[in-house]
Amino acid sequence: MKTLTIILTLFLSLPVLAQVPEQAEDISPLLIGETIPDAILLDPNGNQVSVNSLIKNKPTVLVFYRGGWCPYCNNQLSALGESEQEIMDLGYQIIAVSPDHVESLQPTIEGERLSYSVFADPKAEFIQAVGIGFKTPEKAKGYIFKKTQKEASDILPVPTVMIVDTKGKILYEYINPDYSTRLSSELLLANLIALKKTL
Q1: Which of 158, 178, 153 lies closest to 64, judged by CA?
Q2: How far apart are CA 68 and CA 79, in angstroms?
Q3: Torsion from C-alpha of 120, 195, 81, 170, nearest 10 degrees
């Protein structure tokens, strides 16, 4: 009996590995009021950077996109770039994260003429920790390889925009499993203005 108790105790103390959802509609994201976890991301030069170090000085518009191969994502990134000065004038910064290969970051930055920070989460560990990852469909993997000549990540994020404070607390989020529908710059700016009064 004592041995059984020890075995059960050891079993129950093991971390529970979350199952990655098959469908975008089945994700379980962190909610407004919760705090995003720290994680290690890679910058365009392959340098490791912690999420906490990126957000500690300014409230942040945190954007999760599928990859530079996605035209909807590129349109969104470009629109954010056009609104960047207004966002900065309100006291925020923009950080974009995808499961892209590091080598794919610079072409995205140059192609969309971005001046804000873009990072890779190649194993989608941060994406999973935030609860927005799902298994990359096989059809999508073929499309991604055709567009990039690189193997696709096994996990994609549901396109997401979060506004977080300098402690990582989620103040606002927009998450839509329909990847063709993105948060408009107008609605984002309206929320940034409203939240600025509470920061």
Answers
A1: 158
A2: 14
A3: 10
Reported as a single tens digit per residue, the pLDDT across 56-78 is 999 999 999 999 999 999 999 99
Task: Give residue 171's Cα distance to chain centre.
Answer: 15
DSSP E strand boundaries for the chain: 40-42, 48-50, 60-64, 93-98, 117-120, 133-135, 155-157, 160-164, 170-175
HSE-up (13 A, CA, CB side) for residue 120: 22
Which amino acid belongs to residue 130? V
Q: Pick the closest to residue 27 from 187, 192, 179, 181 (CA basis).
A: 179
Please give the Cα distance from 47 to 50 (Å, whole number). 10
pTM value > 0.70: yes
What is 159-193 written as a DSSP string?
A: PEEEEE-TT-BEEEEEE-S-TT----HHHHHHHHH
Listed residue (51, 13, 61) closest to 164, CA to CA: 61
pLDDT in tens, 166-184: 999 999 999 999 999 999 9
Question: Hey, what are 145's tokens?
Answer: 């390889």
